[in-house]
Here is the input.
Amino acid sequence: MNALAEEIRKLSRQYPERRSAILPALRLAQERHGGWLPPEALREVAAALELTPAVCLSVASFYDQLHLEPPGRHLVEVCTNVSCALTGAQQVVEAFERELGTPVGTTSVDGAFTLGTVECLGGCGWATVVAIDNRHRLRVRAEDVPEIVEELRAGDA
Amino acid sequence: MPEYPQLVFAGTDGGAVLSLAEYEARGGLTALRKARALEPDAVIAELEASGLRGRGGAFFPTGRKWAFVPKPAKLPKPHYLVVNADESEPGTFKDREIILRVPFRFLEGCLIAAHAISSQHVFVYIRGEYEREFEVLRDALDQLRRGGHLGGVTVVLHRGAGAYICGEETALLESLEGKRGQPRTKPPFPAVAGLYAAPTAVNNVESITTVTCVLELGGAEYAKLGTPGSSGTRVFSLSGNVANPGNYELPHGISLRELIYDVGGGVPGGRELKAVIPGGSSTPILTAADIDTPLDFDSLVQAGSSIGSAGVIVIDDRCCLVQLGIRVSQFYEHESCGKCTPCRVGTRWLTQILQKIEDGRASQADLDLLLSVCDRILGKCLCPLGDSDAIAVASYVAKFRDEFQAHVDLGRCPFGGASSLEGILAPAALHGRHTHAPEVARA
Here is the structure.
């Protein structure tokens, strides 16, 4: 048995019913597969939890944080829900489009960045909230964006 | 600004208490010891006396909810406490601050609640986007476990994966069982048949944290705070066009004016207050004329709205209300689980009709159609998600009818591109876009 399957089984022992571990298992599998869930990952989770891959796909496709297509190396998600929108989120989105050179909803040609908008991240009082690789940056203004992108590029170099 | 009593955030001096030793030095865990010395029914009686009502949005009396959970002798199945930490109602960001600043007070509340409903199993369903909050909670839980305070209760931190609907309690239970987060029919209610069809209490983070405060103070003493129908303090999340946004723990009954102007510093940039959403995006909008409404359950009902999750969104005069309707409706459209047709289809219709109005393509009949679609959603689904969209949109039309009418009469948006929400791109608007840049797609 491989390491991922062993970890998934360990996770599942926290629950009275094995299937409850499907979200943590899919999250783990996604981490191991470079940030998304290829069919192989779904088969691995299914085998470890004694479910079918179709069940795993039906669950994975329901949740926004589980990706069925490969994102870029960095995932940049700008909240554009009401409070962020009222205080300048669209300007932040456009600043990222300029700096990353890719339209919102796409991955840059070099595969470095996926830029998207997301629904409320629960940081309305610290608008605009931007999730970068799932870590929240708070109070981001359009003028902060070049520095953020530079920092991410420098980290990759 | 006057000083208000702090219960949920007591002993933090504006910061966080992340070590158990420090928490205990400041009187932490006394409420748990007090509770464990009492019979479960006596704990529930304290809660009933406190008048504490659910902070997640439904405002259901916490003590009564627990009293509905059958005794193990009567229903010999495992009993579960499930904490709803899937905070995602737009405008609401209090639970995450509670977890980050007073994780022990929250976990202490979990253990008290578990005792009250005779449960040995606690699941905390925390939204997947809350990474740091999950880590803080995991660390605090480890400290409690090492200190031997769990008393045989297992506490599992279960992370969601990005779905607003999982904040609805039965969808949350489905998700926790490893399924798509789609709401169940009620009855049976979770108290009798919840997680794994066993007796389950589902409570919000702030409610559970306040349970600790109630046990510390005593129910009768707690009930003296706030108003008779809405006892105690509340963590208000203040956001939008306001000078000092943030979370503020204030007694129920404080007015919107006090919250926005005295505490929040007013509307910045010399703009006028136009509207307020008082309890998260699913609650009906109020206008500047409602500014003296007290923030408690009964007063907000009287004002035609709801205290909801106490997420107060301040909106200034630059905002086009049709655009606000589009943005809010896109959210519910995106988050609809798809189980009930009126919600799945209706939320999309609302967005499309509103877009038509915004674009100046709408006739008078479209305005009627908009309200008719709201009616066709209301009360026709298993859960309130579709209702939330319909209630919000219908309230914008009711309170700002002239603005909607102007779009129809002028054949364009009267803001002429200058609205604060102009061009805002919701995730729903990106559906169907290529994931990859065009160059890659062609390659």
